[in-house]
Amino acid sequence: MMNKHLSGVGLGLRREMFDELLPDIPASVDFWEVAPENWIPLGGKYQKNLNQFTSGSNFVSHGLSLSIGSPEPLDIDFVKDVKLFLDRHQILYYSEHLSYCSGQGHLYDLMPIPFTEEAVTHVVDRVKQVQDIIERPLLLENVSYYAAPGQEMTEQEFTLSVLNESGCLLLLDVNNIYVNSINHNYDAEKFLSAMPSGKIVYGHIAGHYDEADDLKIDTHGSDVIEPVWQLLKKAYEIHGVFPTLLERDFNIPPISELLIEMEKIRTIQKHVQHQMSAKQPRKFRA
User: Fold this and answer.
1) Inside any domain, residue 3
2) pLDDT digit string, tens, across residues 90-112
């Protein structure tokens, strides 16, 4: 399972979904995503249910509290617990947010790392520590942010520097690019084009909240809107079709509705694949 090729369309797994999903796990979900923090301390029924899932399905892991950019020392014990979780469930890919959530205590939110060369060096060193412990490449996700304290670089420059200097891989969140492009007035397609195709392992797409015309809040609590679908299509056209996961963290509708929204991802993937195939020069036999 650990070396199984990641492809297609995924969905975030939450404990409240179990009653709808077990024992007949939907075959149309190509891979699932779990947060280690929500499962590491659990046993009994929940652990049994998760074992049932991971033994028969492809999984990735998306963390919540690694706090890769924190000024506090890296929580080595936590990272070791994550490695045990990944090994136990044969999960290859572990992703986290390019942000931090701790500093003299837990902040209960994702805070923006200052876009500076010093911060790049700090994050890169911590990424290498994590990768040495988990014995896997770490995936970092481009995050939404609402302020940029002490900014010396653009978000694009900062993200590329961390990716290039640390050797980590990328979880490309398309909705976050859209949200940031509105909130910080930059060209979403230009940012998207600058991301390194070879580092993209999979993508996220989600809904957000419109606080105002010029302020979008990343919530994962609503349906994906049309401009974000169009940006996902553009992402596939630029980078090739990559596995993509639908995030929904609250206001969670019935699984049947989530599966319908997932099928829109699959439809866009097939459409772009067809476009790309049509552009390939045909080979003729002599």
Assistant:
1) no
2) 999 999 999 867 444 444 456 67
Euclidean distance between CA atoms 78 and 121, whole angstroms: 22
Q: Which residues contact 202 (CB under 8 A, 6 or more apart)?
A: 6, 10, 31, 60, 93, 171, 172, 242, 243, 244, 245
Which domain covers residue 93, as residue numbers?
A: 9-279
Domain count, the chain: 1
What Å distances lie between residue 224 and 26, 121, 188, 258, 264, CA to CA? 21, 35, 16, 11, 10
Is 154 part of a structural domain of the chain?
Answer: yes
Q: Judge whether 99 and 143 are in contact, CB under 8 Å.
A: yes
Half-sphere exposure for 133 (CA within 13 Å, toward CB): 21
Sign of the alpha-carbon torsion through 202, 93, 40, 74: negative
Query: Tell me: the pLDDT tens digits for 154-179?
Result: 999 999 999 999 999 999 999 999 99
Report residue 90 CA to chain centroid gap.
19
